[in-house]
Amino acid sequence: MARAPENRRQALVKLAWVGIWLIYLGAPVDDLVHGHHAVAVTVVAALGLAAFVVAYLALVFLRTNTGERPERWVYGILAAQTALSLVLSAALGKNWLVLFVYVAVACGAALPAKESRWAVPAVTALLAAVGAWQDTGADLYPALLIPSLLGGFAMVGVKQLVRTMRELREARETVAHLAATEERLRLARDLHDLLGHSLSLITLKSELAGRMLPDRPQDAAQQVADIEKVSRQALVDVREAVSGYRRPTLAAELAAARGALASAGIAARLPAAERPAGLGSQGEGALAWALREAVTNVVRHSGAATCVVALRVEDGLATLTVSDDGRGPVADQRSGNGLTGLTERLILAGGTLDTGRSGDGGFRLTATVPADPAPVGADRRGGGG
């Protein structure tokens, strides 16, 4: 309705729908056939009626339902329709008053709401004036006033409904696109964090196995066994990440961090491997990802001899701090993909990420998330993910 068809099928459906309402032009057609007018008058009137119908169809098919101001030809067609209605009804009688109803409907369909609000009543008022003059018996034109008003304003409402439905459809497509984008970002973050940690550990253990192989084959075999174990776990983690069920726990990540730091020859001071009281599963998952990323960076880049992990919950906030005594942050160094993804994770959990130089001159990472005491019991009963 009030929208240009986009293909032949839509054009045929719209023509059939509009054609149903053209049946009300039966009164003018009957007057042409049985009105006993002169031949010249009948021919001119028939041409005028044909021009009126063509103009009406042009508005219905070509005027799109947009919030933009109508083109000049729209106003020209409406003015021509009004003039034809006035001339034909004034010259040929009350049977032609129905043309004003079509003009009112066309105004409602083709004009913006602000303009149609006065255009429809104006056309109806013109119908009332001409009808009072032509239909002295007052048996026809009063019955056309209500259809003129209702038809015109109904088109305004239908046009607004169509516009709203179109906006809702576009909004739904936008939401679907955003959801797909967020899922791609989630998968990219998970794979980066999972594989970065696992591959770093595999690299370390491979180097250890290579150094042990000539003189300590049994120790080298143990490192190879650890490599196989890490590889299998990485495969499981990737499958869970792709399926959307991956949520690490602090206990698992602390155990993994202890092993990774030991393999790298870095002395570690870690808290107890349990979830602190007052920390929900979502916050635990975010801090677990932060711990994994921080330890991976310590192992790969820091050159540190000691790594300290602290975890506390106070004042409604859970804070994880990972610091080392290595090289420390480099001036003007941009954050890598890992820290960027970690920042996004913490933001989704309502938390923040802060990095800087530690007290020992190394690197410090601090992740903070809101603590939620209410669901702790439920989280402990339901597991950490």
TrEMBL record:
InterPro entries attached to this UniProt entry: HATPase_C_sf, HATPase_dom, Sensor_HK_TwoCompSys, Sig_transdc_His_kin_sub3_dim/P
Ranges annotated as spanning the membrane: 12-29, 35-61, 73-90, 96-113, 118-134, 140-162
UniProt-listed CDD domains: HATPase_UhpB-NarQ-NarX-like
Positions of the Signal transduction histidine kinase subgroup 3 dimerisation and phosphoacceptor domain: 183-249
Organism: Actinacidiphila polyblastidii
Occurrences of domain Histidine kinase/HSP90-like ATPase (ranges): 287-371
Domain of life, source organism: Bacteria
Coiled coil: none
Protein name as it appears in the record: Sensor histidine kinase
Record's keyword terms, sorted: Kinase, Membrane, Transferase, Transmembrane, Transmembrane helix, Two-component regulatory system
GO molecular function: kinase activity
